[in-house]
Structures are given as structure tokens and as C-alpha cells.
Specification:
Length: 134
């Protein structure tokens, strides 16, 4: 699957590590912004949006104080992409994380997760979307 992976710029080492894991599992990363040295923010914004549009799905590595990644998530939702979000997002109050296209990241990758967090995410998801489970 072609993935656009978003995250906080200051967490780019963690995001890059997750990208490598996803690639080893057979996924294609459409744009590795963690290696970009482009300081022209206009160009960066346009490149990010082009890459999101090219992707089959969006993958958000959640952390506190996300900024541009929320915009990228909005673009992915507007393009109708399935959006996979890491389990830490269960602590966020962003209303868009309840959108029907949002799915837990563990559905697309076998990243090692804390089982209690996965169970908590699933329990919350059942409360929010009881009729949408597969």
C-alpha cells in the first residue's frame, strides 16, 4: 500500500523509524519528508499535498502539539483516504479523530504496541462507533 506518513517535525526520528518498519512490511512511502532539507515552506506544503493525493492511505504518528499534521490529516480525509492513527491519539479531543475514515494504526502494521493501549483504543472505538466495526 502507498502510504503518506505524517507526524510532528520534532519527532521526525521516530516517524522515520516507523517509515522504515512500514517499508520492511512491504508498504511504499510516497514522500519521506523527514529527509527533506527544503526550507521553502510554500514548496513543502505543495509537495506534502501532492504526496497525500498520490497515497492509498494516510498514517498519522500522533504526538502532543501536532501542527501541520492536522492539516495533512484534513487533506487526507477530504481526498477520502483511509487514515490510520497511532494509539496515542486516544488521548486527543480532536473531533476529526471520530471520522468514519479514521482507523487504528495497528490495522495496517504490526508495530509493537502496548496491549493495554490497544484494548483501551478498541473499547473507546466501540463506544463511539459500535455499528462500524468489521
Amino acid at each position: 500500500m502507498k502510504l503518506y506518513v505524517a507526524g510532528k517535525y520534532t519527532d521526525r526520528e521516530r516517524v522515520s523509524e516507523i517509515m522504515r518498519i512500514l517499508e520492511k512490511q512491504g508498504h511504499e512511502i510516497v514522500f519521506d519528508w523527514t529527509k527533506s532539507s527544503n526550507n521553502d515552506f510554500r514548496e513543502v506544503a505543495l509537495e506534502d499535498l501532492r504526496a497525500i493525493k498520490e497515497a492509498d492511505a494516510f498514517y498519522l504518528v500522533y504526538s502532543n502539539e501536532l501542527q501541520g499534521a492536522w492539516t495533512e490529516l484534513g487533506a487526507a480525509l477530504a481526498y477520502g483516504l483511509p487514515c490510520y492513527v497511532t494509539y496515542e491519539a486516544i488521548h486527543s479531543h480532536n473531533v476529526f479523530l471520530n471520522h468514519p475514515l479514521i482507523r487504528p494504526a495497528y490495522e495496517v502494521t504490526a508495530l509493537p504496541f502496548n496491549q493495554k493501549a490497544v484494548e483501551k483504543y478498541s473499547a473507546i472505538e466501540m463506544e463511539v462507533r459500535p455499528n462500524e466495526r468489521k
